[in-house]
Specification:
The chain is α/β, with parallel strands linked by helices and 292 residues long. Helices cover 28% and strands 19% of the residues. The radius of gyration is 18 Å and the shape is globular. Keywords: Hydrolase, Membrane, Transmembrane, Transmembrane helix.
């Protein structure tokens, strides 16, 4: 009965396909509208290799709370894929700078709401300090987001990291011309340029600092000063505490709230790096959106 009610509620929601121009690419997004005038506008910047469809349940729930929610896919990925990943020149900088900024600008055009809330999952949170449109952002929440260095990880997950960055990942990417994420159990294929830049940052103790002033611009001289909630999980092996600690200096002018959530406190079995947005973990959603 509950499943039938959920299906009926979803069918009543207005979901609009949005085309987003982004400096050399066109992104495809979905706008989830509330029944009345939206109380605020929310955008979800997704994690690396995670399609927007993964966030659909959460986005529908956000709309049910009275907010407009925009999801989208990065260039040459998911619904925004216009060529095979092996033919793509996309980099992580393209995804985190050009595409994230373009998507946020698209959110602003959809509706004029009192508040604009950015939710960044993993990659979706650590590129924001470079964005030029930070003055339009009223609130930020990062979820399982950290400046990850390969030595941060603990056994036995550490061995998987070594394979991904130093053996299977590089070999497979060179052979195929893209990261065959599906074959490697990651769920989605990723352009080679995204993988190589991702690898460079995660195998450097300074993450992307050496690229600033080169393939990355200088950080916005007018940094974000509003409220930001940095959420981590005790069972997240991909973004351990040490990596999340490195987020705070990126937002040193902001009003920071740190939360390290234990799944057991919400009567959940596991959350890890990706599952905060899944239906079975919806008990976490008010923490992410901060519904009052």
């Amino acid at each position: 009965m509950k499943q039938l009610e959920d299906m009926m509620a979803e069918s009543e929601q207005r979901v609009e396909t949005v085309k987003i121009p982004s400096e050399g690419a066109t992104l495809t997004g979905k706008a989830y509208w509330p029944k009345g005038d939206p109380k605020s506008s929310v955008i979800i910047h997704g994690a690396t290799g995670v399609p927007q469809l993964f966030y659909a349940r959460f986005a529908r729930w956000v709309a049910e709370q009275g907010h407009l929610c925009l999801t989208y896919d990065y260039r040459d990925f998911g619904a925004s894929k216009q060529t095979h990943p092996r033919n793509s020149s996309a980099t992580m900088a393209d995804w985190g700078l050009r595409d994230q900024q373009a998507a946020f600008d698209a959110l602003l055009k959809l509706a004029d709401t009192p508040q604009k809330h950015v939710i960044g999952h993993s990659l979706g949170g650590f590129m924001l300090p470079f964005h030029s449109n930070l003055d339009k952002v009223d609130k930020v929440t990062t979820v399982a987001c950290g400046q990850v260095y390969w030595r941060d990880h603990h056994l036995p997950y550490f061995f998987m990291v070594i394979l991904f960055w130093y053996l299977l990942g590089p070999i497979a990417t060179r052979l195929k011309g893209y990261l065959p994420g599906k074959a490697l159990g990651l769920g989605a294929d990723v352009p080679a340029g995204v993988y190589w830049q991702w690898r460079k940052w995660c195998t450097s103790p300074t993450f992307y600092s050496s690229d600033i002033g080169g393939v990355l611009p200088q950080m916005n001289p007018n940094p974000y000063k509003g409220p930001i909630k940095i959420i981590g999980f005790t069972d997240d092996e991909t973004a351990p505490k040490a990596s999340i600690d490195r987020m705070e200096p990126l937002y040193k002018d902001a009003q920071i709230i740190r939360q390290t959530l234990n799944p057991a406190d919400f009567e959940l079995k596991e959350v890890g790096h990706l599952k905060a947005f899944t239906k079975q973990n919806e008990a976490l959603w008010p923490e992410i959106l901060e519904v009052s």
